[in-house]
Design brief:
This is Serine hydrolase. The protein has about 375 residues and is an alpha+beta fold. Helix content is about 55%, strand content about 15%.
Amino acid sequence: MRTLIWVIGSVLVCAVSVLGIVFWKFQKEIKKDDPEYIVQFIKEHKEDKNVSVAIQYNQQHWVELNTKEPLPLASTVKIIIAIAYAQQAADGRINPQQQVDLKELEPFYIPKTDGGAHEAWLAQLDLQGMESVPLSEVANGMIAYSSNANTDYLMHILGLQYVNDVLTQLAVKEHEPLYPIVSAIYIPTQLMEEKSLTKKETLTALRDMDMTEYRERALTIHENWVEHPLTKEEKAKALKMLNMDFQKVWSDRLIRASTDNYISILEKLNSKNYFSEDVHKYLDPVMEQLMLNPKNQEWLKHAGQKGGSTAFVLTLAAYAEDKKGNQTEIAFFANDLNTMEQLKLSNSMNSFQMKFLTDEGFRMRLKKELSES
């Protein structure tokens, strides 16, 4: 069986009551891996500006839906940081083999705010008895595990101005500037303490804040944490603030871009001739960890991807070239999702990609149905 992304194991719950049976059926439904769900979702949301899809196959525009609409990227934005890392490694600005004490990442980590990504990355390092890792492994953890702490640490090491200069190099003019995503979580706590507000007043003030001030506050907090990291108690206090209303503001204010922007980036990654060989020497091991799977090596020349999600967002940017020379780029961004939509999209995206890459009949039907709908 061909595998494009890692398979996450699921736990079956034995139903011993009517309530248990209902729960089991609900679990079975949301965990169903169904590429047709993605097709139907796209068709049903064709007029929805919160859904944007761009798919290319061999340089042909296969699917295009609201491709100019900027939407929150969530962790898909980490592709930009991976590019900045590879460029600085190629230029000798950073040493990918430089050892990073894992404690250096702690200032940028607030527990229970990244879906367990950072803890999962640390857990596999702990199994190897590692207390420090090469900088390259920090970058790997940012992409493979989607660690937000690693992301903000790399912003610190690479320099945020340099990271944002990558957007200029890539000519993605509609892409919003990057800012530290973990420190933004602390803005509500800072605002409440700074202005002696109630929680309700803080939420109102946060919603009214313009993006320039929001980004500046996130950066100031980020820079302060380098010298004065939060205590465990302060992190717990910040976490306590994050009810769903605050999470929605944080999600809505994540860096935005369009699928049109990301298709152009994916084309550059897929072509292997936009960036220099020296850059790809460091970029490919980070972006193309899919190729560590021997089954992928059997039929793919190269492939890379980065997805992202919040409670309300699901995004994916993926590229691949198979051994027959067929090139595919997929950018899928969705915002304002309900819980069922978010889970079902997430669980079906892998099979949708696989179906598109390997099934000509599915590709042709997808193009026909979405152009007619």
